[in-house]
Amino acid sequence: MYGSGNQPIIVLKEGTERSKDKEAQFNNIAAAKAVADSIRSTLGPKGMDKMLVDTIGEVLITNDGVTILKEIDVQHPAAKMVVEVAKTQDDECGDGTTSAVVIAGELLKQSESLIDSNVHPTVITNGFKLASAKAVEILKEMSVKSDDKVMKKVAITALTGKSVGGEDEYLADLVIKATKTIFDEGKVNVDNIKIEKKVGGVIKDTYMIEGIVIDKQRVHPRMPKKIENAKIALLAVPMEIKKTEVDAQISIRDPASMAAFLAEEEATLKTMVDKVKAAGANVVLCQKGVDDLAQHYMAKQGIFGCRRLKQTDLEALAKATGGKIIGNIAEITASDLGKAKLVEEKAVGAEDMTFITGCSNPKAVSIVIRGGTEHVMDEVERSIHDAIRVVGLAMEDGKVVAGAGAPEIELALRLAEYASTVGGREQLAIEAFAKAMEIIPWTISENAGIDSIDSIIKLKSAHEKKGEGRNYGLDLESGEAVDMLKKNVVEPLRVKTQAITSATEVANMILRIDDVIASRRAAPMNPMGDPNMGGPGMGGVGGMM
Ligand code: ADP
Ligand code: MG
Fold first, then answer.
1. Nearest-atom index, ligand 1, CA of 65
2. Which member of 268, 335, 350, 439 has the greatest number of CB atoms within 10 A?
3. Does pTM top 0.90 for this prediction?
4. Strands 338-348 and 226-235: what pairing?
């Protein structure tokens, strides 16, 4: 403890774990690979699904990389970094998450043997950086322009392999229609599509409307079911008499003052409805409650009303109808009202919903998802969401590439050529990078029960012919290499470039770590800190009790 003799001097707290150099690197690589391995089996259209059960027993069945990784609780810091890649890929593209993670895992696996043979990690990371930049260039070269026909292929590619009950063709058309409708100033914002789910029916009963659907019925049966040329009041405040915060008691002694009290309440509610009516509203959509009496007055005035809307619904409605969200009913004016050609309550399965169509903003779109169970609808929702993102990317950039392993094999070959032009030790890293690209076609074929070595050989020989050969990917039915632009497996360029750049970034980040110093976690049960973990008493006076 006092540095006498050759005893080591301890600078870290007791309980701190430390691993250095190769040990640290191999630990980190192992953890990152474990994450990649955990989702590998879901890659590609023949990938399997995972069933996740959370701590309260909720079940989630999915094939989506990022959904899986978000749900499972990863402890190791390097593993966490890999999970972040999936999230980045998801934020940027909405697709290619599994690929990004699998590539990151493979890059690290390929660097193991380099580290073993004493290639310095800096050399590896430099080589990887060069290779990744070159890969982006090569992908750009092999990309083709996307037109309407190509767009459908992109949508179908995004939907195959998801559990959408074989309805990919139907959903692809729906996705394209929706994406086209919200395409605005060169951008697609998927948040502009409102999704409602109603259990029942089959997936093919899913449909899109131009307008907004809210999962609410009108509050009073005597209200009209249908309003044409709707003028909509969007209320963020209740149509009720405010309840006092504290439990106040009002003692009323004689029946006359009781009547007066009730009359006053009635009058207040009636004034609210009159205000709304005077502004010209024939539809009231209220985020809060609507009193029975107010409902009655509204019905009498022929006003259609819904209550307890979600705030997000109200916001979507404001955007779609050009209405203002009203915080004070007394101040409502005609210019605050939103406009729509039609507001109508209609049945969806066994229940009714409210449809607001012909909105003043034509870019408002809703999709009503139907399906046999909640789980089915959830997966359909995720799939539609992702497909809209992907088709959106293709619309924004106007560039797509063939899929099914075509880009990765092209990269494997061309990066190997490139490696020899770079030379030096970096060459080894670029070669490792090139080799790592093969993991995508390898895994896709493995998951489809096709011999992976055979597949890689077939793909390589197709690509070596150059020209159109670069679009050859793996047909999972026949196990042959075919032109994927013809076979309709097409993906946006950005999904591929983003997956490779972010996979490279995380691999490099992990490779640069040569020292992991981990403090022991404080036990959550003891907020004062674990007495064994140091603190004032450690080794000091009074330490021996
Ligand atoms: P990710 O999360 O990476 O998008 P997916 O499970 O969606 O994972 O698989 C994507 C991979 O599957 C891509 O490499 C894509 O080209 C490939 N793929 C998609 N459709 C097909 C198909 N019909 N045949 C072969 N490969 C396909
Ligand atoms: Mg995908």
1. 2
2. 439
3. no
4. antiparallel
Q: What is the pLDDT of residues 355-396, one digit of tens each?
A: 999 998 888 899 999 988 888 888 889 889 889 999 999 999
Minimum mean pLDDT range among 98-112, 242-256, 322-336, 343-357: 242-256
What CA–CA distance (Å, rounded) separates 193 from 316? 9
User: Is pLDDT of 27 > 90?
Assistant: no
* 346 residue type, one letter: K
In whole angstroms, give the CA distance from residue 340 to residue 226.
Answer: 12
| Residue whose structure tokens are 């499972």 | 72
Whether 323 lines ligand 1, by a CB cut-off of 6 Å, is no
Crossing angle (nearest 10°) for helices 374-397 and 493-511: 100
Q: Is 383's C-beta closer than 6 angstroms to any atom of ligand 1?
A: no
Give the C-alpha separation, 484 to 490, whole Å.
Answer: 7
- Ligand 1: does its nearest atom lie under 6 Å from the Cβ of 234? no
pLDDT of residue 542: 35
DSSP 343-409: EEEEEETTEEEEEEEEESSTT-EEEEEEESSHHHHHHHHHHHHHHHHHHHHHHHH-EEEE-TTHHHH
172: three-class secondary structure by DSSP: helix
The finding on whether 371 has its CB within 6 A of some atom of ligand 1 is no
Distance 383 CA to ligand 2 centre (A): 9
**Which of 444, 459, 475, 478 to mutate to test ligand 1, by most ligand atoms within 8 A of the CB atom?**
444
